[in-house]
């Protein structure tokens, strides 16, 4: 491939609509199934808006996965970030999702990007 062609391919890959994005589809369906009763992407519902949440915790993704899986365990363990969120949201209780795999959570987070 000439450098020119390479550039062109990169450009197409970057701008072409993604027709099949399995992770995104899985993320959307998991989000709708488990999160939309309390979260919108763009505004507060029972819990905070989740659009851009992956970026918000870019410095500590492990915490974000643990929180989504079991926020209650973190609160009980005295985790300051989890407690601050709980208090800032009128002590509304978020459901726990111990059955979500890392792949499931990654897909959900992909959907919220
Ligand atoms: C029963 C309501 C409920 C459901 C269902 C729920 N949440 Fe929450 N979520 C909350 C509340 C309320 C908070 C704020 C913290 C608190 O009050 O404990 C929160 C906080 C969060 C936060 C932290 C937000 C921030 O601004 O830092 C994340 C991330 C989150 N939820 C992800 C999810 C995901 C992903 C799902 C679906 C798998 C989900 N939640 C399902 C109620 C819910």
List the helices and strands and how they pair.
Layout (H helix, E strand, L loop, with lengths): L2 H13 L6 H13 L18 H4 L4 H16 L3 H9 L13 H11 L1
Helix pairs in contact: 2-6, 4-5
Heme C binds next to helix 3, helix 4 and helix 5.
Which features does this protein show?
113 residues, mainly alpha, Cytochrome Bc1 Complex, Chain D, domain 2, binds heme C
Polypeptide structure, described:
With 113 residues, the chain is mostly helical. The protein has a single domain (22-112), classed as Cytochrome Bc1 Complex, Chain D, domain 2, CATH 1.10.760.10. 58% of the residues lie in helices and 0% in strands. It contains six helices and no strands. It has helices at 3-15, 22-34, 53-56, 61-76, 80-88, 102-112. Helix 2 (22-34) crosses helix 6 (102-112) and helix 4 (61-76) crosses helix 5. The longest helix has 16 residues, at 61-76. The protein is elongated. The model has no long low-confidence stretch (mean pLDDT 92). The structure holds heme C. Heme C binds next to helix 3, helix 4 and helix 5.
At the first level of CATH, the class is Mainly Alpha
End-to-end span in angstroms?
33 Å
Helix content: 55-70%
Biggest β-sheet description: none
The CATH topology is what? Answer: Cytochrome Bc1 Complex, Chain D, domain 2
The topology string of helices and strands comes to: HHHHHH
Provide the domain count.
Answer: 1
Can you tell me the overall shape?
elongated
